[in-house]
Structure formats: structure tokens, C-alpha cells
Amino acid sequence: MRPRGSRARWPCPVNGRRPVGVPRQVQTEAPPNPEVVMEKQPAGSVVGIWRYPVKSMMGEELNASEVTERGLLGDRAYGLMDRSTGKVASAKNPRKWPRLFDFRAAYVEAPRRGAQLPEVRITLPDGAVLTSGHADLDQTLSRELQREVTLEEADPGRQPGPRSRVPTPRASEPARAEEYWPDMEGLDYRDTVTDFDMPEHTFFDLAVVHVLTTATLDRLRELYPQGRFEVRRFRPNIVVRPPDDAIGFVENDWIGSTVSIGDGVRLSVTGPCPRCVMTTLPQGDLPKDSGILRTAARHNQTNVGVYAAVVRGGEVRRGAAVMVEEPVAAPLQV
Hints:
The chain has helices at 137-145, 214-223, 231-234, 291-300, and strands at 36-51, 60-62, 64-68, 71-72, 78-82, 104-107, 120-123, 129-131, 149-153, 176-181, 192-197, 209-213, 238-241, 258-261, 265-274, 303-312, 314-317, 321-329. By secondary structure, the protein is mainly β. The chain starts with 35 loop residues before the first strand and ends in a 5-residue tail after the last strand.
């Protein structure tokens, strides 16, 4: 196990992200070792489940969700495509997209595995509500954002939904977005904008599931008491409250392990979740605060939470037990 708070080796040299043009590496499981058995250790329980139907908009808190090989069913299924650049609108570049957090997206009904995606209800900054099937949606969003945009599905051929009629010129290549790096010590770049590719046929930044513990938030609050370290700043999918004796950046220790949730879901924790300028932006009653990112950079190499791939899907519910599978030596056979 890694020392608490350490950062795992990550295959991408740029803050955990693949540079543009570098193909995603396919992860494979190692063959079983007969001399090692997996022992499950209690790691807490699920206290929060979040889904974000439209990339970089506010999302919806859930009591339960289906988990597939692509993460929570319906998560980041939609994104706004900038017509002038062909890139996906992202709050990672607030200089270009300063108002995305003023929009909220939620499904009109719960998505079902194997079925067409339901429409998305989008609440505008003034409280007006439109759905993804509305004829004037693109024009309305373009007017609100002051850039020409189109709402598109991440992979319309895989799971048809109400926006499948939209032509997708990027079907044969990964979606691309921009990230602004503030002038802050501890970041890979300073005061510049870079491009990054998303995993193929998705609108995820790097991985399909983001897991965060309340212990990490508590530790960040101790380090920077003036800051409001709330779950919504970090946009995780699954929030875990660890046992009372677990303190610090506990999920760092899960990297390279398998985490089981409830009776069915199993996640492979693949790496840390490097944070960006999005965590500093105002949203609702949360103020702009660069100290949020600066604290993560100083004390945990910008990481807040961990990324995971889905080993086995199923249903995840609030209150479900979370276990970490750790390798131990098998007993000797005599």
C-alpha cells in the first residue's frame, strides 16, 4: 500500500491527462496469482451519488443509479459543441465559458439500461426550463452563452436519444476541449490554455467514475479553514464516508486496488483525480476562491479524489457498504 497522501505513478505526463494526439492506453487485468488472495477491508459507506447529464452543467443528486461499463448510466451523455471550433464547451476554460455553472441539467425520468436515453431538462440562469427535444434549444443556449453551440450526445450510435438526429463530425475521432491553467504554483502549466482529448466516444475528461471521500474534504478544510470545501465544487460521482478512524487523503491508498460497493458493483481505482480551475469558480452561493485549488496543489499535488474504471456494473445506492480488496499472501498448503 502506498503511504497515505502519496501520488500514484500515472501514465500521462500532463497532470494525469493524455496530451493531444496520444492514444488512450487500454488497461488489462493481470492474471490471477495463486500465491495471493484478496482480502476485503471495510472502507465506509456511500453518502452521495451524483450524475451530470450535460458536461460542465450542474447535475443531479440521486438516491441510486445503475452503473455500467461507462460509469453511472447517463452521466456526461450530452455536451455542448462549439460550432466555431468543433470543441466541447467546458468550464475548464472559464475565460471562454464563464456561465456554464449557471445551467442545471437533469433527466425528465431515470435512464434505463438498454433503452433510449430520456430527454434532459435544462434550467437556464433565469429559471426558464427547456428540454433536449425543444426545437429552439440550440438557439436559446447560443444566445445565453453568446457563442453558437449545439447540444450533442457523446455516442449517439451506441444509445440513441432525443439528440441523435444531430450530425456528429467528430464520430471517428475523440472529442476535444480546452483547459485554462491559472498562474499558480504547483500546476503543470501557468496562465495558459491547452487542448486535451477525451476518451473515445465520451465526454469524460479522463475516466468514467470519480470517487471522493468525506475524509479528504475534512482534511482540506483543516488546511484552509476559510475555504468552503463542499462536494459540489469537485463534481464526483460517488461520495464515500470512511470509518471514523480514517483521516487524511484516504482514497489515495486505494489506487491500484479494487473497490466493491454493495452486492454487485466493483471498481478498479486507476489513478488520482487532478483538479483544475473549475474547483475555484463560483456556483450558486459558493464564492470564487483560488485558495481551493492552491490548497490541493500544496498538500496533495492538486489531487482531490480518485478515478476508477468499472470492473462489474450493477446498482449503487446511498448507504451501501464500500470495501477495498487488498492482496494478502495465501496460506501455505501442507
